[in-house]
Amino acid sequence: MGTATEPDPDAAFGEAPLTGFTVGVTAARRRDELVALLVRRGAEVVEAPALRILPLEDDIALRRATRLCLEAPLDYVVATTGIGWRGWMSAAEGWGLGPALAAACRDAVVFTRGPKATGAVRASGLREGWSPGSEATDELLTWLLARPLSGRRIAVQEHGVPLDAFAVALRERGAEVVSVPVYRWAPPEDPGPVRRLVEQTARREVHALTFTSAPAIAAFLNTADEEGLRDAVVDAMRGDVLPVAVGPICGRPLLDLGLPVVWPARGRLGALVRTLVETLPSRSRRELDVAGRRLVLQGNALLVAGDRLQLSPKSAALLRALAENPGWVLSRAELLRRAWRDSDADEHAVEAAVARLRAVLGPHGDLIRTVPKRGYRLAVA
């Protein structure tokens, strides 16, 4: 696609394929790792933890649950998360109960919800008896309910929120259930960043949102509710803002809303970033020849005649609207509709934005042509 003087856009963005894209990160745990992976690929990142993980105060409830597990033999043990399982084993070791807990789990059938839990169980010297391919807690429950449970003792390691319905269903079948609360979710200490990310999403100023847990999605949408922006946020994720989950279980709250969420085949942060790399450019990149120059618009980045420019979200939205039909005249009212989401914006805002865009384009400012009394168009010759 390139020439001797105009580099191929794939080569220009190749080492940083997310150049021009702004990505919201809602994770609390391993946030630094995810941010580093995104920045390394050229993305601008908005960090806004939707939740934080709180260990149980003094581990009183966890120690009590652990002792209950050791009072009599366990028949089944359910490991739901890798971090939760490791935290439980580590806490038990600190109390001097590690060998006894490991022996109790070894004598039981251990079920793991997905590869992270499986890896943690194996790392503790145990083997899983079964793990659902869907990584769904519901599938674990279905498997258990298909067996005789009367009198069986089942330990269930929880993952941030109580699994009340899971435990009730087992108890109704006669099982004794020991719920093991390893950690719980709480609102972020500073709610400002997630509120700002909600506003940016509503204004389409981010190109993607990443989620690594279903509770984080719920917290993000709850914040949108509190800000009176839920409808705008959901509408944005239905079109301009790509929601990306680490896996199908994480993404279920978005799927329930009918949103086009995507996720990697494997629930890993690196795989999540690869999904973004494979998906975002194909959704956003616009390539065309205008006035004898090659123009590539990707997110908020513009490559034109060998020059790489960084645009503001508004300037990029304005240029993208004009680039949809090069040479067609768009009125100020039409540009307001396509590139603005602010109810109080008027046609003077369009004129000011065009002036700023031309200033950023510098020698390429003549790409934006004014058509007196009608509006603006992108030059074609």
Largest β-sheet summary: 4 strands, parallel
Distance between the termini: 19 Å
Mean pLDDT: 89
Low-confidence stretches: 1-9
| Spatial strand sequence of the major β-sheet | 2-1-9-10
Q: Percent range for helical residues?
A: 40-55%
What would you say this structure looks like, in words?
- By secondary structure, the chain is α/β, with parallel strands linked by helices.
- It folds into 3 domains: 15-51 and 188-284, Rossmann fold (3-Layer(aba) Sandwich); 54-185, Rossmann fold, CATH 3.40.50.10090; 286-378, Winged helix-like DNA-binding domain superfamily/Winged helix DNA-binding domain (Arc Repressor Mutant, subunit A), CATH 1.10.10.10.
- The chain contains 16 helices and 16 strands.
- It has helices spanning 9-14, 31-40, 60-71, 82-94, 98-106, 115-123, 137-145, 164-172, 192-202, 214-226, 230-237, 252-256, 269-284, 313-323, 332-339, 347-361, and strands at 22-25, 44-47, 52-55, 76-79, 109-112, 153-157, 176-180, 183-186, 208-211, 242-245, 286-290, 293-298, 301-304, 307-310, 368-371, 375-378.
- A 4-stranded parallel sheet has the order 2-1-9-10, sandwiched between helices. It has a 4-stranded parallel sheet with strand order 5-4-6-7, sandwiched between helices.
- Strand 6, helix 8 (164-172) and strand 7 (176-180) form a beta-alpha-beta unit.
- Helix 4 (82-94) runs parallel beside helix 6 (115-123).
- The protein is elongated.
- Residues 1-9 have low confidence and may be disordered.
